[in-house]
Amino acid sequence: MTEALEHALVPPVSDADPFDPEVLLDPGPLHQALREAGPVVYLSRYDVHALARHEQVHAALVDWQRFESGAGVGLANFRHEKSWRPPSALLEADPPLHDAPRRVLREILAPPALRRLRTTWAATAEELVDQVLAEATEFDAFTALAEAFPLRAFPDAVGLGPDGRENLLPYGNMAFNSFGPRNDLVTADAHRVAELSAWVNLHCAREALSEDGFGAQIWAAADRGDLTCEQAPLVVRSLLTAGVDTTVHGLAACLYAVATHPEEWQRLRQRPELTRTAFDEAVRWQSPVQTFFRTATTDVTIAGTVIPADTKILMFLGAANRDPRRWPDPDRFDLTRDPSGHVGFGMGIHQCVGQHVARLEAEALLTALACRVERIELAGTPRRHPNNTLRSWESLPLRVKKG
Ligand code: OVM
Prior knowledge:
The protein is an alpha+beta fold and 403 residues long. Helices cover 46% and strands 12% of the residues. It has one domain: CATH 1.10.630.10.
C-alpha cells in the first residue's frame, strides 16, 4: 500500500441528487449540508467526489494540471463516452490546445476592444427601458428586460443576421442541461438537439456573419494563422453557447437583488460607479452558473481524501460563493462588500472570457434603470426555471415607481 492510501480518509457520503428539479429550484439547503459535511463529499448516486467549500473549489479551479477540462466539464467523461456535440475548443480543452483559442477570444472580448460598444449599448438599454416604462409600471422583468436586452445587444455584436435568434436561448438551455446527468431535463429537449445544433452550426460559418462583429474577428484570426480553420467555427459556437443564457440569468439576478434590497437600490442610484460591483455581487449571490466538473488526471489527495485518476469532481460554484468560511454574512446581497474572489465566473485559465461583455451589458441596463426608476419591488412571486447547470428564471414580476 502506498503512503497516501495508508493515511487516506474515507470522505462523508451523500446520496443526495443535486440535479433533482426540487433541489435545482432551491439549492441552498443542499449546499449548506455539503459544506458542513466536509471539504470533500462522495456523491454515491453519481460516483463522483464533490467540493462545496470556497477553499477547495478555488484550489481545484486553479490547478488545471491535476483537474483537467479535456474530458468534459459535465458528468460525462469524454474519455469513455461520446459528447453530444464536438467538444468546445475552449471550455472542454486543456493547454496547449486551449491556448490559441483562449488568446484570440481574450483579445476580441478585452475591455479596450469593447469600448465602442459602450455607447451603442447605453442607447439600446435606454430605448428598451423607455419602451417598457411607457407601457406599464408593473411587468415581467425577466422577459421584458433580462431576456430582451441581451437579445437586442449581443447577437448584433457577434454579427448574426436577424433570422432565427429565437433559437439562441433554447440552445443554451439545452447545452447547460447537458453538463448534468441524462435526467428528464435532458430528455425533454432531446427532440430539438438536431434542429437547434444545425441552426447554431450554420451560423458559425464565415458567410453567416457580418463583417464587423466578434464572429468576423474570430475568422480574421484564422486568416492570420492564429487559429486553424477547424477551430474558428467552434470558437464562434462558444460565443453563441456561453454568451446568451448566462447574461440573461445574470441580469435577472441583478434585478431580483435590487428589487428585494431597496436600500441597495438607493445606494446604487446615488453612486452609479457601483453598478459593476452590483453585477459581481449579484453573480456571487446567485451564481448563474452553479456547477462545473473537472476530471482528475492522477490520484489527487484533497484534505486527506484520495480522488482516483480519471474520475469526475463536481465543483459547487454557488455553494463556494456563499461559504461562511470565506464570506461574512454570505446570504446577504451587500454592495459594501468586495465580491472579488467569487468563483461565479470560475477562476484560473478557464475563467469566463466574456465577463467584460457581461459587465458592460449589466452596466448599460442598470444605469438606464437607475436614471428612470426611483423605487423597484416585487409585484408577485418570482418563478425559477430548472436547469442542470444554470440558476435560471421563468418570470420576475416587478413594480416600479418612475422618478
Ligand atoms: C463553450 C461553452 C459552453 C457553455 C458554457 C461555457 C460557461 C462555454 O461552448 O465554449 O462557459
